[in-house]
Amino acid sequence: MPKVLGIDSSTQSLSAVVLDTDLGTLICEETVNFGKDVPHFRSPSGFLPDRKKGEVHADPLMWVEALDLLFARLRKAGAPLDEVAALSVSGQQHGSVYLDGVVHETFANLNPLKTLAEQFSPALTRRTSPIWMDVSTSAECREIAEALGGAGEVCARSGSVPTERFTGPQIRKFFKNQPESYEKTGCIHLVSSFIASILAGKSVGIDRGDGAGMNLMNLAADAWDPDLLEATAPGLADKLPSLKDSRTVAGPPAHYFTSRYSLNPNCQVVIGTGDNPSSLVGMGATAAGKMVISLGTSDTLFAAMDEPLTDPRGFGHVFGNPLGGFMSLICFRNGSLAREAVKRNLGLDWSDFDAAGLAKTPPGNEGRVMVPFFKSEITPRVDSDGPVRNYEAEKTGPEVEVRAVLEGQFLNMRLHSQWLKLEPETILLTGGASENEGIAQLLADVFNTPVARLKVSASAALGAALRAAEAGCGIPMESLEKSFCQTEPGSRLEPNPGSAEIYDPLVKTYEDLLKSLTTNNK
Ligand code: XUL
Fold first, then answer.
1. Which ligand 1 atom is nearest residue 317's CA?
2. Exposed, middle or buried by CB within 10 Å (0-12, 13-18, 19+), for 351?
């Protein structure tokens, strides 16, 4: 019987997968795209445009409304919601939702005759939620570092130096700028714990995978760090949900979902985690030694590790591995949005990205290199509003630009992941852009390592469903991985011969170009 549901609340969409764990099959997949499907929130890419410099916020009611729409679509598509034995959630990391002190009653008494958005609207003490793309909290990061005796101390405790997009510095900024609203806030959730709470009909805990992305959790103690809480904002301990093991079962779903969408009342809601920890599970990479690259709104590179190893330059992070131990994560902000900018600027289609770009240019682009930061970057931290090239774009064709943006992205990844000292046999590749053959081949060439892709491309939603199956139905992860985390036969791409000779020296060319930019940025 075990059918399980995984929900992923990401930057640009909310999506779901339903799995049959007996048959090892994907039964149903649905997506709500924020820009297209709930356009009245005026967030074409999932966040509100035109905020102050460096600020990136989203409307939490957009996520809530999308949840209603997602369930309606699942039902319409004939998904067996009445047979779902367990569900769990993956959420874009770091984003936070600010709720009043009586939201517990809202969670517990959701009325199936009203929409979720109308019921949660009065509970918000902050109308918008800062999300992971926000880079506006440099002052707060400095203050938190100072209070703890240096960024190194914050990193030793929490796995990351104070980081602008992380929830702690964001909370501090809210407390400083809107002290009265902060005071009225009774509960601060992450995106993953907020969505899981709505589904469970009660405020549920934050798991150690996503909790580690806040600059508030002490990795060694597996608990909120009292000094970090104090350095962030007064009274914070009382406003945070408790930290829980990722396998925690919250209980049955809210009556709202059983009544309105016929969700099985005996379904077990397993608490949520961040999209990257969830993808680690979905990619079958929870044991050390495997490396995953995800090409999504943000590009991320991550790997499970037994001991927390921190990035000496401070750009990488340590999060909790939902199955125990830790994971390293490096996030690149200029992911899909940068690739889309090139596509748009040049009037290309994804389908002719290969033909128009990669097929017409030689590997290495004849030494033409681009630092592809269309917007401010976080790895490395550079304020930018356009790419920097070592060639004149006006004198070359669109094909050079296509190759330059992709090679620049992958060279930047290669350079900034060297500290992990990982030499994987294969890179596991996921995320929307991974489906493009040319892009996947280029990644194999730049890293001089074979690349493999899995059958299910929605790895974060898949990870949520697998976690639900393990924690909610007691199915061993090993057998789930055998059914769902197999690489697609024929999807493995070997690096082209001669790749190392081309890309090894190009890393240095890229690094030099980047240095000229970071020097000017200081
Ligand atoms: C990770 C990060 C992003 C978000 C959105 O640190 O900021 O990957 O999780 O996907």
1. 6
2. exposed
- Is the pLDDT confidence value at 516 over 90? no
Residue 170: how many CA atoms within 13 Å on its side-chain side? 30
Q: State pLDDT tens for residues 263-274.
A: 999 999 999 999
- Closest CA to ligand 1's atom 5: 92
Ligand 1 centroid distance, CA of 72 (Å): 27
Q: Is residue 132 within 6 Å of ligand 1 at its C-beta?
A: yes
Give the bridge partners for 30, in sequence order: 16
Any ligand 1 atom below 6 A from CB of 329: yes
Kindly report, residue by residue over 397-448, the tens digit of the pLDDT: 889 999 999 999 999 999 999 999 998 999 999 998 888 899 999 999 999 9
**CA distances to 96, 227, 419 from 411, in Å:** 32, 38, 14
The rounded distance, in Å, linking the Cα atoms of 124 and 102 is 10
Q: How far is the CA of 428 from the centre of ligand 1 (A)?
A: 18
**3-state SS track over 456-521:** CCCHHHHHHHHHHHHHHHCCCHHHHHHHHCCECCCCCECCCCCHHHHHHHHHHHHHHHHHHHHHHH
Rounded CA-CA distance 77/63 in Å is 21
Q: Is 212 helix (H, G, I), strand (E, B) or coil?
A: helix
Alpha helices in 249-294 (DSSP H): 255-261, 275-282
Tokens of 387: 């790419």
In which band, very low, low, confident or very high, does the pLDDT at 345 lie, cut at 50, 70 and 90? confident
Single-letter amino acid code for the residue at 5: L
Does any ligand 1 atom lie closer than 6 A to the CB of residue 331?
yes
DSSP H helices, 28-113, are: 34-37, 60-76, 103-108
Minimal CA–CA distance to 168: which of 54, 155, 204, 181?
Answer: 155
Q: Is 190 in the pocket of ligand 1 (CB under 6 A)?
A: no
d(CA 312, CA 470): 35
